[in-house]
Amino acid sequence: MYLVAIAWIYVVLMMAAAEAASPNGTLVGAVFTLLLYGALPLGLVMYIMRTPHRRRARRAREAAEAQAATTPSGAVQPDGGDHAAGDAVASERKEP
């Protein structure tokens, strides 16, 4: 996949260089050739080609989070911590 992307960028760079070097060409035309024939389409194609990889990575991450949130007995801890539930501040006791 990356070899095709590198080859496409090379071809687009050569097109942009030919545009800039030709008597009727301009640098603005070369920049637009580089962007409209190279960067934008290649970015879109690479994003689409990486979709299955991103989906697998997201599912693996969700499975790891679900595995980490359960204890060996299968009970789910509400906050995901390994400490005892309770108040952080001790309650106030009245004297008799």
Description:
The chain is mostly helical. It has a domain at 2-68. Helices cover 65% and strands 0% of the residues. Helix 1 packs antiparallel against helix 2.
State the helicity in percent bands: 55-70%
The portion of residues forming beta strands comes to: under 5%
Largest sheet, if any? none
Radius of gyration based on Cα positions:
29 Å
Intertermini distance: 79 Å
Count the DSSP helices: 3
Q: Which descriptor suits the 3D outline?
A: elongated
Low-confidence stretches: none
What is the total tally of β strands? 0
The assigned structural class equals mainly alpha
Question: What's the short version?
Answer:
The protein has three helices and no strands.
Write the layout of secondary structure elements.
Layout: H1 2-21, H2 27-49, H3 51-69
Helix pairs in contact: 1-2
Structural descriptors:
elongated, 96 residues, mainly alpha, 0% strand
